Amino acid sequence: MILKHVFENGSEVTLEQILSNKEWRVNKQNNLMNRFPEASLISIKMNIPGAMKQSPAILAMFQRGLKTLESMYAQNKVEEVVYFDRETGPEAFIVVSQSLHDAKINGIRFEQTDSLGRIFDVDVMAAVDDGQQLSRTELGFDVRKCFVCGEDAKVCARTQQHSKTEMTAALDNIYQTFLVNQGAVIDDNADD
Ligand SMILES: [Zn+2]
């Protein structure tokens, strides 16, 4: 049976879990940057607002996005890919022999052009920072777009532009498009 909604069979997390996971992530990132001081590190997670961070739909979309990112970075030497199914949501790290600048451009390109890009967070870092903290606009890209309305995502987040219902509907929409792209047939009349 195909689940039609993003949060179906999902589980909620607490703020404490999110905060301690943030610590876990920073540790992982530091370990990887220590092991690969010359490489760029891509830190990948979902960008899902609210307390529900984990569900079969979220996992399925993450895996598809990760696959796409892996193939984007595969043009360079990928040193390592690690994936974690955290209770706070799926996460992955890709270590790639590519300059920070180019690795960043790949990450933004994914967020910007992939059909799932707006619900992903792709952070790119390196042990040896070239000192250029280049923003999206400085790299020639638009500001990050809100997955609900397509306007500046930062503004929407700051002003709490969208209700929970609105955001859930937008996420369901993205998820259902994803399912159709995967070849699934969604029966609108089916009872959940
Ligand atoms: Zn918006």
From TrEMBL:
GO biological process: prosthetic group biosynthetic process
Pfam families assigned: CitX
Entry EC number(s): 2.7.7.61
InterPro entries reported in the protein's UniProt record: CitX (IPR005551)
Single Gene Ontology MF annotation: holo-citrate lyase synthase activity
Recorded catalytic activity of this chain's protein: apo-[citrate lyase ACP] + 2'-(5''-triphospho-alpha-D-ribosyl)-3'-dephospho-CoA = holo-[citrate lyase ACP] + diphosphate
Keywords: Nucleotidyltransferase, Transferase
Protein name: citrate lyase holo-[acyl-carrier protein] synthase
